[in-house]
Fold these 4 entries.
Entry 1:
Amino acid sequence: MADPAFDMSGQTQDLPAAGPQLAAPIERRPSLLTNLQHARWPDQLFRFAMWACAVSVLLILATIVYELVVNSRLSWNAFGLKFFSGQDWDPVQDHYGALPFIYGTLVSSLLALLIAVPLSVGTAIFLTEMCPVWLRGPLAFFTELLAAIPSVIYGLWAIFVLAPILRNYIQPWLAKAFGWTGLFEGPPFGYGMLAAGIILAIMIIPVISSITREVMSVVPSHQREGVLALGATRWEMIRLGVLRNARTGIVGAVILGLGRSLGETMAVTMVIGNRAEIAKSLFAPGYSMASVIANEFSEAPGDLYVSALVEIGLALFFVTIIVNALARLLVWSVTKGQPVRGNV
């Protein structure tokens, strides 16, 4: 074996000294834990931002409820629960009851749903299952365009177009054909609960129709093909293969339309008649909760008057909550408590 002090050329090599030597400084690299901590701070920031968004929504809702409760305390102490069952609205005598406004809001909204739901679902079925390709895009665009029209434009159209048509043609015919029911009796003014329900129906048609169309479009094609393969007709395929699978989404669309109609203000104010009374006939004028707040809040002279109007806003808030609770119960009754399937 060759001597380690000599290389292959026969020259000597310098050997390291035998004494102790200082070690070269070791380069310290960041540990894995430090790297993970630096990598996680964007995730932590994102998580905090999402929590802040969720909590802010709850804070806004709590602030709204707090303000409504505090500012309606004077009316609540003066009338109590009788405020919601009273029918007198007399600012001169400081007697206030919200029942006519609750009645007008519910009747006009339900009437709007009775008119709008068949039209909306029919429009969605036509656009999804029957409409030619060249017509589908323009028709869907103009249907959704109805949602972009301001409510005051709807009110003006109702005053100059809808009210004369109701007064001269529709209301006299309804009184003659169905006056025996008590729902269509009285002088045909053109303004009233029927006009408010019709204008609300026109305003919520694009909401219900667009959502129903989107829900029906995601129903898988094999659902349609399977029903047709069993010998069903085209109408049976739409009814059994499409509408049955999309029923939960359609109910959700109806709920959104109802929410729009409950809170609508300007268009309803211009045609409902603005009279605080409860009448069986749909020809009679009425009043809604949103309309009375918009009409009288800026002119309310006394604190009790303002507090009564704020309490009507509180009533509208709770009516909305009750309607949504009933709607959830309806959804549960449709789905039988089962989770929504992926093809709905």
Note: Residues 127 and 178 are 34 Å apart (CA to CA).
Entry 2:
Amino acid sequence: MNRLAQFLQYTGKLFALQGLLRRVRDGRSTPQIPVRPLVVCLVLGVVMRIGSYLDLAEQTKSRRRWRHLCGLKAPVSHDVFGYVTERLTPEDWRQNQAQVAKELKRNKALESCKIKGLLFLSIDANEHFSSFSRTCPRCCQRQVEGLDRDGKQVKVTQYYHRYVFAHLSGPKLNLVLDVEPILPGEDECAAAVRLLGRLRRVYGPRFFDGITADAWYAKGPFLQALDKLGWLWIVVLKREDMEVFQEALQLSQDQKPSVAFRDEQRARQVRLWEVKELHFSDGYTKRKSVQVVRSDERWTQRRLEGGNKCAKPQQSRWMWAACEGLSGYPAEVIYHGGHRRWGIENQAFNELTQGYHLTHCYHHDPTSMLVQMLILIFAFTLFTAFARHSLLVRVGELTRKALAHQLDLALEQDLPWDLWFHSG
């Protein structure tokens, strides 16, 4: 069967894709082109890994079947996509993403992401775009070293955009739930709290169980905000000047590990020490204690040096602080939950950057950039779910990049493409 037809049938049957796209509101007062053909075009552009509005406009110009599938009567210029995305409502795309994510959870697709029955959400920030000349009212600013015309070192202003991502990861599926822009003058934690507050409203308090984050978020006020939101939490401890770090290190020194095991997935020998009832910081309420898990990990790294294969023993130490609510769980839960945070780097940022042009600025307008980012995670989720459904992808005979290419080639087959998004 035609691969693109399979994708459209799958997403239509499981997620009611036509209905989701009909819900997107149009902020234009007198639109000359209906919004739905443009929205279909934007979503399919991400699925087929088209990297700019210029390239997307070329699809509408050079491919008659593309226009038939999207419902366009004539080619569309790249300026139209920028103009339209400025006037779309981000909340419509957030609701669409929530609908897809909830359907995936109902179909048990998120079971592989759980650790001892707990579903941990990773949060982290990623830079989207930077420039020394292009700027907008929502650009953050920083001073960086540069060279003037005479080759002298000078301080220059760089403008950039960063977003905080909320991500669920596992061995079989990774899913970005939402993103939140970091506003000028605020730090990641402020944007993260705003993001998590919206996730609680949109997804409900029990869609996931806890938060895992890196050392940047190991701050008392942020952790207190998580307690108020009602979620468990695990954060990396890196700052050796923190009292809780030194206390946990000293109390676990020269003690037998609580547990030792081999992590087959990461091919490491692991020993864990667990220290409970510690005071985190003055910024965190003294009425609640935290526990710290220390992990010593050893493995053998094999690589090629000077044409010869060599194996070198490696070791690393990790420490995590966890909330009081996790005290009844074994230390392995905190170990796996702490390392699960790397999924946002490997399965979200890296994949979206390499395959889906995450760091490309399609149109430098705050609303347009946010809407395009939300369309990106929405279409990426549709494609990821379809790839997971494909037997060839599951058994490793077909890569996701090759699958996206097959979707693109499938459009060249002579099928009634004009029927897909024109009914209902």
Note: The two ends are 24 Å apart (CA to CA).
Entry 3:
Amino acid sequence: MKHIAVLLGGWSVEREVSLVSGAACAKALHELGFKVTEIDVKPDIAEVLAKTKPDVVFNALHGRWGEDGCVQGLLELMKIPYTHSGVLASSVAMDKPMAKKIFEEAGLRCPKGKTISRADMLRGDPMPRPYVVKPANEGSSVGVKLVFENENFFFTAENWNYGDSVLVEEYIPGRELTVTILNDKPLGVTELRIGSGFYDYEHKYTDGKTQHLCPAPLPKDKYDEVMQMALKAHRALGCRGLSRADFRYDEKQFYLLEINTQPGMTPLSLSPEMAKQAGIGFNELVRLLVEDARLGA
């Protein structure tokens, strides 16, 4: 019987979401007949893994240290096969400015933007409003802020604590779309409709906050186009297993916002929902990820 260690929790700002994702995946693995050990990741993770001796690691961590190549590098050193993307794709995807450069070099359309220092941002608007500010290396829309023209809002040392490197982009009005890739194949497109604002951390993980239209109501040519853009982004970074790419659509063009190499696996998560729409149940999705687990890129 194959022994699977599920890594969950950790100490990033996305800890609570990871605990839910990990518990759901562990339950599926039990039902699939695997021996399962759940590990709430702490700084002694190398010692815990050495004692646990799993055949495969199912990485259900979200955010920094679990999604940015750090845990992946440890697993490479320990020679334990793991799910999802490898060291390079994980680290580059989490570094939003670097990922943006790679996407643009691959011919993918992204919002215009620039990387500035925290000090420069605190001096005043870094570009004409409306614009979007993102931490350079957080996931799940943590710290993302939309700044609109008539809004009486300015960044201060108190309301920005997400590091010294900041990505600032033009705001693209329009529809919010997301595409899941599984084992190098697009599963489908979901449109996210919310009452106001954008698909932020609260909308992602609060039931009833966001309407999921799966499949997205798009003309077939546009549906296929955005799926191919997501696949191109997945391949440009060298992702493997499961990824999810987020887009804005202004009714003319798609703009790639970012790619997530460790999509959520909670009851409200988009990738399991898209997999289900494609005929792949949750347990089958987890099984496919375990089967794809490996070392290297």
Note: Residues 220-237 form the longest helix (18 residues).
Entry 4:
Amino acid sequence: MLLHGIFPPVTTPFYPDGKVYLKKLESNVERYSRTPCAGIVVLGSTGEAILLSDQERRDVLKTAREAAAPNKVLVAGTGIESAIETLRLTEYAAELGYDVAMVRTPHYYKKQMQAANILAFYRTVADRSPLPVIIYNFPQATGYDIPAELVIELADHPNLIGIKESSGEVEKVRKMVEGTRQVQRSATVTETFEAVTPRMLEAATSGSNGESGELVQVAGMSGSPSGKPSSAAVTIVGKMKTRQKEAGFQVLVGAAQKLHPSLDAGAVGAILAFACLAPTACYEIHAAWKEGDAELARLKQERIAQAAQKIVGDLGIPGIKYGMDFNGYFGGPARLPFLPLTGARKSDVERLLADIRN
């Protein structure tokens, strides 16, 4: 599964009385689906998942899944403190048609979260999960920072395909990338190297007599010297032409203000709370970097750095949601214990976003 690009971790909208506002969630997801983002993350930290009931989590997953465009990679945040509850929510996400499960590090019993505990937790979840799994490390919220050495050890598991690293430590990103280079995996992509998921392949074969496709070469029918299909080989699956791309263990980051240096350190993409209110501005950094235009990527990074730090890092979810309101999405209120922004802080958000509109 290819995880390259920018993913907004969508917020969960609420009515003023605190009930989940599913119609506004549907509207936001439909709008994100029209952006150049690679996919959408549901029930991440920005989605206030930890403040939702189990039924609310399921309702949010279902609504977002139905509203998302078919060409977007869908990531479900399914991490709960116990492995068994994590698997239950992951199984539900798989039934709905999600593509990837994002599982945050267990953290409540911090003193007991030794290497053996973390290894056992993730290996158990990955062994039994019907979806490929990415680790989610967010020490600013959990108080637990999974060591790079543990991530490198876990990376060999065939169903653990990556990590969202939200610590903001660029050198840690570099260390994980370098330490997982031995992981050799390929991902199915389109002819233009965009992600393809099993859900997309299933949709492509509908109405095509269930044929699995035939293998042809882009540059003629000759095979590679080894007799295996070359990397230029195209597989026609129903109505879709696909090929294979080397993916390995994929590191995504969560700090928008450090996106460009993280990409230089080897990250392949990002799940950014700042993308909830400015998805195109985040995408432009990744696009410039991907095109090899370091100067443009640097300028695009400078454009959002202060706003991302102040709004996401300092003000948190109430700041993100107000920024969404300011930029035309529905943010609305956050749940207690979050409090609304003061008038002065709202003015700060508006000033920071004056040049970053969507």
Note: Residues 294-326 form the longest helix (33 residues).
